[in-house]
Structure to design on (243 residues):
């Protein structure tokens, strides 16, 4: 067993998964892969099982139905915490996140509780997004910063590395959100405890095929979640120790 686990939630990623597994196995540092598949109709789960049968560093969690990214990640975190992983990462399975960035996350995580991959620190690095989508994302980032006081440039990003202690400090069962607000909620829960969070720059590449999952519902969920987080933090815009 390696010390680092990369959790990749999948829903219809059969074209991407084998290449992803191969790219991970070629990294300069050894990592384990956990695929969390929500019974993908395209058979991604079966492909994951075949990969796992060939490699002891690949694992699969099967879930019965499509239940959203947030639920899939929480299941993956629970699985990781039952084992001895020290570095636990979130990463998309569609190559929007570049697996070659993983060693930089692990470097930064030596001295942090949570490392956030940021598209927006020191400039904007997003490939293949319409301007509308980019404006929505950067405005969301500003909104989160203003309301909650969390000083990060990219709070909705989904390329992250948690130290074990950071995940152990939160009640995964109490995580409510599922869309982009899931990322905000998790980071806020760790930040308000006063844990150390750092950002590193990443390049995000939107998949060139398929449709955006962005919907009004996801936006509303995030808008409302930010206020709930402010309340949960006693209306403070800075970290505090929780009891
Ligand atoms: N297990 C699981 N994985 C999912 C679910 N929804 C998306 N994923 C996976 O999560 C990763 C990111 O999802 P995408 O579909 O690229 O969604 P996104 O990047 O947030 O959305 P767009 O950029 O708007 O397309 C991919 O690996 C997906 O296969 C889900 O409900 N369950
Ligand atoms: Mg994507």
């Amino acid at each position: 067993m390696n010390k680092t686990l990369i959790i990749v939630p999948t829903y219809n990623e059969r074209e991407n998964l084998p290449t992803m597994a191969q790219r991970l196995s070629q990294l300069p540092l050894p990592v384990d892969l956990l695929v969390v598949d929500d019974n993908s109709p395209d058979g991604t789960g079966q492909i994951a099982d075949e990969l796992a049968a060939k490699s002891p560093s690949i694992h699969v969690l099967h879930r019965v139905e499509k239940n959203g990214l947030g639920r899939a990640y929480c299941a993956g975190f629970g699985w990781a915490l039952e084992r001895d992983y020290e570095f636990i990462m979130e990463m998309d399975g569609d190559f929007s996140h570049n697996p070659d960035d993983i060693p930089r996350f692990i470097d930064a995580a030596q001295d942090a509780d949570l490392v956030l991959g940021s598209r927006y620190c020191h400039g904007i690095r997003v490939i293949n997004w319409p301007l509308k989508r980019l404006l929505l994302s950067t405005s969301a980032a500003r909104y989160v910063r203003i309301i909650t006081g969390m000083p990060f440039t990219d709070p909705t990003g989904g390329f992250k590395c948690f130290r074990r202690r950071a995940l152990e400090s939160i009640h995964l069962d109490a995580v409510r959100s599922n869309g982009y607000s899931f990322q905000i909620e998790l980071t806020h829960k760790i930040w308000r405890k006063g844990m150390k969070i750092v950002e590193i720059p990443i390049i995000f590449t939107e998949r060139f095929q398929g449709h955006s999952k962005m919907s009004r519902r996801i936006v509303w969920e995030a808008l409302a979640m930010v206020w709930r987080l402010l309340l949960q933090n006693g209306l403070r815009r800075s970290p505090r120790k929780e009891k």
Observations:
- Residues 92, 94, 96, 207 surround magnesium ion (ligand 2) (CB under 6 Å).
- The longest strand covers residues 4-10.
